[in-house]
Write a structure and sequence with these properties.
The protein is an alpha+beta fold. It has a domain of 78 residues: OB fold (Dihydrolipoamide Acetyltransferase, E2P), CATH 2.40.50. It has 1 helix and 7 strands; from the N terminus they run αβββββββ. The chain starts with a helix and ends with a strand.
């Protein structure tokens, strides 16, 4: 009798969770994190370069960004494998690269290996 009641309770709980779509949800893998470095800010457009050399632009009216700032982004891959159609979901200031040894010679960014 105890096993029968236990089976009924577990079955009811399972169907309740399935009807609430808790167990049926597939995890979303469309969002990912991206770290970039600010390379320019002009006329309300922030230019950020990732460590693969891709330049991302953000329309923003915050003028306190500086060249060398780290910009952390949450990206949406639009459900595709290519990066060219990805969308910036959100972004925020995350530090300054000279604190990490990542410097610019005026044309390119690179790691400074002077230990």
């Amino acid at each position: 009798m105890k096993n029968f009641i236990r089976t009924i309770i577990l079955t009811t709980a399972l169907f309740t969770l399935m009807s609430l779509n808790v167990l049926a949800k597939e995890p979303s893998n469309q969002l990912y994190a991206m770290t970039t470095v600010v390379t320019d800010y002009q006329d309300g457009t922030l230019y950020c370069e990732d460590f693969n050399g891709m330049v991302w632009t953000i329309e923003c009216d915050q003028e306190d960004w500086m060249v060398g700032d780290i910009c952390a982004m949450v990206m949406d891959n639009n459900g595709t494998d290519i990066i060219y159609d990805d969308i910036i979901v959100t972004y925020k200031y995350d530090g300054f690269v000279s604190n990490w040894g990542y410097v610019s010679d005026g044309k390119h960014w690179g790691w400074k290996y002077n230990f």
